[in-house]
Inverse folding.
């Protein structure tokens, strides 16, 4: 099954557009986990077990693992999710971007070593930097388009060409009309800019959008859904990380995470 | 000593603008190394030992290590270079780019875990995605500006604003006038576009430029030097990877690598 098929199935089976972001910061872990040698794996896999029936995807952020020499725990986490929750695809949030021969190595890292179902990729280096990812036709390739951070406007909001189109719109157009030849692409569009989600949706038809910025970053659920959902009431992977992961601070943290995940999923579903 | 000071010292001491790129592909290793458990470390450290007095920097490309679960060998390689060749700084070529809290994790990976002296960073997400790197004031932060691959033009060559400035020029301007508050920044500008190297040099004054694309990618040394050198005859880190690494195919590969590194350094120096 391709990533896009997995995602569509998860949208239906779990009645959810919620992507659970796995950004493990040991300083915020419950006390009983802090000194475990595999604390990162235990924390993330227990969160995954507690929320898998409420999510359309999991999104581990590789920087949090790499900063702590925990690549082995990331491998184990993805293998765990595939084994226990095969209906929920895993997006490796890596935002890689490099020339062809190096991108091939990064694609081996993401798709062969980690067995991710999809990966986030930076478009700044253009089409040939994306092609080695596209060669894995079953996998999802999620290009950065309009990011939710304050500096996102520095380049992405620049008007290009005749001055009618912003750079992020050009990225959306290129992905939709040139790069997505196998129907495997998606885009990152931040929730802090609903008008821009609507503009991207207009450009890309039913292509899935990964939307960070709900919760800790202040994005609005109603506005995001109104702007971004497809006519089928899907088309979105709305990411929440910290609000779910650190909802609880003690041994019951998984129950707290589940409660927030359920509330978030249900709040999203109100507007589908 | 800051990265910029290390680099300036290496330019003088080794009379070299050559950056030796360490992109280890085991399929191209000499036969006697192929089955060694630490083949990647051995290959790269032996290349480093053979070329250290001819180089202004080493640039390991992290993707080649990550694709093969060889993070420990990358750590060992950088520690080896620091111990044996303290005059030659190490640039970790990682092209990371993410929001502030995640960029902090990537900066821990590059500067604390790997102890790199500088890192390559993607500017697409804007200023706040770069700030966590800049917080390490003695480290080098090398922003992608104009890359040497065919798709580099897809976004970087778009005209922005009033239509007089290309996106890569805007990146050069932002780095030079806004982001480089501690004098630690540099830019990546590909050797395949000498006119654009000249334009970037005009914008950024004496800021160092990392120039890939010599050798395997076809860039011209004379044109690169004419366009990019500063009035002091420096200002450039001209990268060569494959032409040096795979110059020889047998047990004498380090001598072959040294010969090509010396020829390349000397060819560069003809035009300083």
């Amino acid at each position: 099954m391709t990533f896009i098929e997995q995602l569509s199935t998860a949208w239906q089976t779990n009645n959810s557009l919620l992507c659970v972001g796995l950004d493990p910061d040991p300083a915020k872990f419950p006390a009983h986990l802090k000194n475990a040698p595999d604390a990162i794996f235990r924390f993330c896999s227990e969160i995954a077990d507690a929320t898998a029936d409420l999510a359309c995807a999991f999104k581990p952020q590789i920087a949090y693992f790499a900063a702590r020499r925990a690549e082995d725990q990331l491998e184990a986490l993805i293998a765990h999710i595939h084994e226990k929750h095969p209906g929920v695809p895993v997006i490796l949030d890596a935002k890689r971007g490099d020339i062809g021969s190096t991108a091939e190595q990064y694609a081996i890292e993401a798709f062969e070593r980690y067995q991710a179902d999809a990966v986030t990729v930076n478009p700044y280096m253009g089409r040939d930097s994306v092609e080695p990812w596209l060669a894995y036709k079953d996998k999802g390739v999620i290009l950065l388009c309009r990011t939710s951070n304050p500096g996102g406007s520095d380049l992405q909001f620049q008007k290009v060409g005749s001055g009618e189109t912003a750079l992020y719109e050009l990225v959306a157009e290129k992905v939709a009309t040139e790069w997505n030849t196998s129907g495997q692409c998606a885009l990152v569009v931040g929730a802090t800019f609903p008008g821009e989600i609507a503009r991207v949706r207009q450009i890309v038809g039913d292509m899935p959008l990964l939307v960070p910025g709900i919760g800790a970053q202040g994005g609005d659920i109603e506005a995001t859904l109104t702007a971004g959902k497809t006519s089928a009431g899907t088309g979105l992977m709305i990411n929440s990380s910290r609000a779910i992961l650190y909802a609880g601070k003690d041994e019951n943290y998984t129950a707290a995470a589940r409660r927030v995940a359920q509330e978030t999923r249900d709040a999203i579903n109100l507007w589908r």
